[in-house]
Amino acid sequence: xxxxxxxxxxxxxxxxxxxxxxxxxxxxxxxxxxxxxxxxxxxxxxxxxxxxxxxxxxxxxxxxxxxxxxxxxxxxxxxxxxxxxxxxxxxxxxxxxxxxxxxxxxxxxxxxxxxxxxxxxxxxxxxxxxxxxxxxxxxxxxxxxxxxxxxxxxxxxxxxxxxxxxxxxxxxxxxxxxxxxxxxxxxxxxxxxxxxxxxxxxxxxxxxxxxxxxxxxxxxxxxxxxxxxxxxxxxxxxxxxxxxxxxxxxxxxxxxxxxxxxxxxxxxxxxxxxxxxxxxxxxxxxxxxxxxxxxxxxxxxxxxxxxxxxxxxxxxxxxxxxxxxxxxxxxxxxxxxxxxxxxxxxxxxxxxxxxxxxxxxxxxxxxxxxxxxxxxxx
Length: 378
Known about the structure:
- The chain crosses the membrane at residues 23-50, 62-81, 118-138, 150-170, 195-223, 248-270, 290-311.
- The protein is mainly α.
- It is built from eleven helices and three strands.
- The termini are far apart.
């Protein structure tokens, strides 16, 4: 779901709105900081789990890894910007000037919208994978490792292509509210912004959403009608595979639902602004709705990791193993450091005597073992 155009005049905070209290400012900063922490830790752990666990390197998890990458980049880009806006009380303050300021302004919104588009298109790729896995289980391997890599690269290229106009639509301008600060703003007029938003929304949200509705409808109908033929042994194997596919299906449907719940409100708000459907609303009321809907959209990047771990036992087990492995390595390093420190404080003559004693004991044990083996062979 694209948020292109959220910086047009219609969607900027009102100039005559009341100033937020310090308490509200602190709350917003804390909430955005928590969002950044949860998204960073959660998506990083998902990436570690998928990359280091052979058991879950299936195609669907490869796509989930791609979503985790886009969610992580998205949060790292937008959260500091939003915190800066809250602190300065300016819609989109920009503290860099000149060529660097203009380039980073354009790049920031380009990356933001690219990551959002990548998430939506990756959900379509996941739906396609589930379609072959459940509707055509005998052809579930049609998405080979080579094809899925091509799909991921294509997703990023398509997302970048549709959002390339951001490099022309955004620019740095002197703030009307504070003449000492610059803002990174959407400079196209309302007609250009509307055309851009409708185009990107149609191809990167509505069309993918309709595609997924059709795919998942076919999948659900297939699951309800399917009967498992064959022998008892083959039926058990197929039932096990069916249960596994259904668990994965529940997880990806939960991810899709979370995406819609998080991103649909802000897009409805954008449509209403462009078409003037709530011009009678008060300035403070519109600002409150804008802040809430934008924050809800941003939380999607932090919610997804919780869904993966809540629905997948393999993810939970792999995460626990990774954490345990790291703790064991740290403990081993501490023990080695302690042993080295103790060894450095022991005189060389003592170490030599202990080594000689240990060598004699090993020779004696070896001799006794040879005698024992000789008696057994006799």
